[in-house]
Structure formats: C-alpha cells, structure tokens
UniProtKB/TrEMBL annotation:
One of its GO terms (molecular function) is ATP binding. Residues 3-208 form the ATPase domain. Residues 317-402 form the DUF234 domain. PANTHER family: ATPASE. The keyword NADP does not apply. Signal peptide: none annotated. Keywords: ATP-binding, Nucleotide-binding. InterPro entries: ATPase_dom, DUF234, P-loop_NTPase. It holds the Pfam family ATPase_2. It comes from Candidatus Odoribacter faecigallinarum. This is ATP-binding protein.
Length: 439
C-alpha cells in the first residue's frame, strides 16, 4: 500500500526542520503502536539525509558503535572514535550542529530506560548547555505510549518539558479509509468500508496488512484476520502487556468486560470480582486505552458514567479474539469466524455510531458532539450535535439499515432530553437519521 494522508503532519515536521536552522528543535512524536510514527518521519524527511538511531535492548557501548557508523556513513565525517556512553555521541552531535544544521531521529526512545536510565538526565544536561547555539532538529518517538508520556510530562523526570513540540499521530479518518478503498477496490460496498473501520480503527499498519493481502471486502478481511499465523491474533496481547506490565491480567479482564458491553463500574466489578477504581483511573489517564463517558450536560462528574474502549481494534480484539482464545488455541478458526459473523450486526452497529461521530467531527461545523442517556437507561440518543455559533442543535439516530430509523421516536427522546437538561432554549432543532446508506 502506498503512503496515504498525513499532509498536515508532514508540513509541520518540515516547518520544524526549517525552524531548526535558527533555533534547536526537540519534537516528541507519540501515538499507539502501529499508528505509523516512524513511516511519517521518514516520509517527511525523504528529501534530505537524516541520522536514524534505533534504540534496541543491548549494551550501551554496542548501540554507540551502531550510531557512530551511522554518523560516519550519513555525514561523511570521522567521529570521536569508539564511545562507551550515549552522552558522548549526543554531545558530539549537539556541538556539531552549531556549525552545520542536522536532523537526528531517535526511534523507540523509551528503550533507553532499559539500556541505561541515566541517559535521560545526560541528555537534559547536554541539551540545556548547547541548545541555545545548536541548529539541531531532534525528533524522538516511541511505541510504549505511557512511558513516552511519563518521560516528557512527569515533573520528576529529567526531560520534563524539554520538548518544543509534542505531536500525536492519530488513526486514519473515515475520509482517508474511503480514499484507500476507492483506490484498491473501486467497487467497494458500505459493508466493506464499515468492516475496515471496525476491524482496524484506521490504524495504519493494520490497514496496510489487509490492503497488501488484497483483503478489501468484509469476508476477505475476516479471513485474513482469523487464520493460522495471523499477526492480528496476538496483537492485543503483544502491545498491551508491554504497557501494563505484570498486572496485565486484571487489566485484560476489565477490558474484556467493557468490550462485551459492561460499561458501568459496578457491572465491570461484578465480572472481574474485585474493586477496580485504581485500575480504571490508570486505564483512562495513564494508558489512555479507555474513556469515561457521560451524557451531555451531566452536572455530576461521578454519576451516570460509562466506560468505553476508544480503540476500535482493541474493542474487536477483546470482544472476539481474547474471549475465544481457547478456540484459537486448538486452531478452530472457522468457529471463531462463525461467532464473529453471528454477532457482527450488533458489534458493527456500535462502530457505525463511532464512524459518524468521526465524520461529524471532521466537518468542523459543530461546537459540541456527544451522546445522551437518562439515568434509568430508558431514553438514549446516539448523537447530539450543537452549533453554538448559530444557536442550532441536531439529534441523530444511527442504524445499520435506514428502514429501522424512527424519527418520531427520536423526537420524543429529544423532548425528554430538553426537559431533563434545560439546554438548547431558543435553538433551531433538527432530527436526522444516519445509516450505512450515508457512509
């Protein structure tokens, strides 16, 4: 699959490189694993050489030797000779950049913690000494989101706030997914687009794996995901165990419960069988795997709370792959696919609602977008979108099939919303249905 999208990010990275000719720049590129951070940086700087340091878990002196060879090959100059510590390499480059601008890209930056955690304090010291005269464009990225956030946003860490830019790479939008399918499967159906969004969530690597395999229909995607040797099967565990560490079992139980529709804390605790307040807080604030949702205009910060897994792939993985891993262990792939197809309408209905929220966000015509439900669970509105600038609001009902949309019922729910919240007085109100026909 060719490179798609990221035009704003590429433009930003190139502007940062130009700024580095006058003042040293330190950019942190974050985002979940497989989102395409490394590919983005390489694409942005494909027009000029850059120094690429990949951090692996091996002896610091061996890493330094790799970096020394990279400097000599890319810059064509002798270095300081064999270095024992990364600080020597970094100081050499900071000094050199005062004479000639250079771009240094350090990938898997969080792995320095396992190589030698003092590297971060060494970098802080060297950066503080030389950055005022340097012309370096320093970019670092890492695949363990929580560690990267801690390195730069925890006040106790040496590199706290040393970055000049914190860039987060997001999943492909529905518009980009449509562009990709249109190129590789011009006759695609709405079901194929919804499946690509539901299974991958727009994560670049997952989209690439499916497209490169020719899996451009819902059926082919499912065949590619659920089969022997599929990387998708172990992907959730591979990513999240690194994030969660030894407590991953509890976190997995929580996420599995949420993926099955247990959205309140009490429901999740009944499934997990223990108190989970601290775990939920970490999942939301530290790992950013879940989100705490409340109805629009809910006045209490603790009532009527629902927890959701924001990442579509993790939602799918915990709902089907993790839950039925015992079937996969005995290679019963067909039974797992049968279960996914059996439950697909319900699962994809939730994904369709997310899809349209992303579309509405992309339109940039609304100032507030959310959902609403009452505390008894008797009335629920899929999407409420407010336009404060024009005193207008739209209530949306989302269904897979247009014939199942009931606008009269939507208006009744909206009336309940208006009475309960007291909002939108004097607003122009409208009511719309969204289905797969509108994708």
């Amino acid at each position: 699959m060719r490179f798609f999208d990221r035009t704003e990010e590429i433009a930003s990275l190139r502007k940062i490189r130009e700024m580095a000719r006058d003042n040293a720049q330190f950019t942190v590129v974050t985002g979940r694993r497989r989102i395409g951070k490394t590919a983005l940086v390489w694409k942005a700087y494909e027009d000029a050489p850059l120094l690429y340091f990949f951090v692996t878990r091996k002896a610091e002196r061996d890493l330094c030797e790799d970096y020394r060879l990279e400097i000599e090959n890319k810059l064509g100059i002798p270095t300081i000779g064999r270095a024992e510590h990364f600080a020597e390499i970094f100081e050499f480059l900071m000094k050199l950049s005062s004479e000639r601008p250079l771009t240094l890209f350090i990938d898997e930056f969080q792995e320095f913690f396992r190589v030698n955690k003092s590297i971060y304090s060494d970098m802080q010291r060297i950066w503080d000494i030389y950055s005022s005269k340097a012309h370096v464009n320093l970019i670092v990225c890492g695949s363990i989101y929580s560690m990267m956030t801690k390195i730069f946003k925890d006040r106790k860490e040496p590199l706290y706030n040393r970055q000049t830019r914190f860039m987060t790479v997001r999943p492909f939008t529905p518009t980009v997914l449509k562009e990709i399918l249109a190129e590789y499967h011009p006759g695609y159906m709405a079901e194929d687009l919804l499946a690509l969004y539901s299974f991958t969530g727009g994560i670049a690597k997952y989209v690439q794996l499916l497209i490169d395999a020719g899996a451009t229909t819902k059926e082919k995607m499912l065949d590619q995901i659920v089969k022997a040797d599929s990387i998708f099967l172990g992907e959730g565990k591979a990513i999240l165990i690194e994030e969660f560490g030894k407590d991953y079992g509890v976190y997995f139980s929580i996420l599995s419960a949420i993926a099955r529709g247990k959205n309140s804390r009490s429901e999740i605790e009944r499934v997990v069988g223990r108190e989970i307040g601290g775990y939920l807080t970490k999942l939301e604030n530290e790992y950013e795997v879940i989100a705490k949702k409340q109805p629009l205009f809910e006045k209490s910060s603790t009532k009527n709370v629902r927890y959701t897994i924001e990442d579509n792939f993790f939602t799918f993985w915990f709902r089907f792959i993790y839950k039925y891993s015992y079937m996969l262990e005995i290679e019963n792939y067909e039974s797992v696919k049968t279960i996914i197809n059996r439950d697909y309408e319900t699962f994809s209905g939730l994904m369709l609602e997310r899809y349209f929220r992303r579309v509405l966000i992309g339109h940039q015509t609304y100032t507030r977008i959310g959902g609403w439900w009452d505390r008894k669970g008797e009335n629920e509105i899929d999407i409420v979108a407010e336009d404060e600038l024009n005193n207008a609001a739209t209530f949306f009902e989302v269904k897979r099939k247009a014939r199942n949309i009931n606008l009269d019922m939507l208006k009744q729910k909206a009336d309940t919303f208006l009475r309960a919240t007291g909002e939108f007085k004097g607003y122009t109100l409208s009511y719309k249905g969204l289905s797969m026909d509108d994708m």
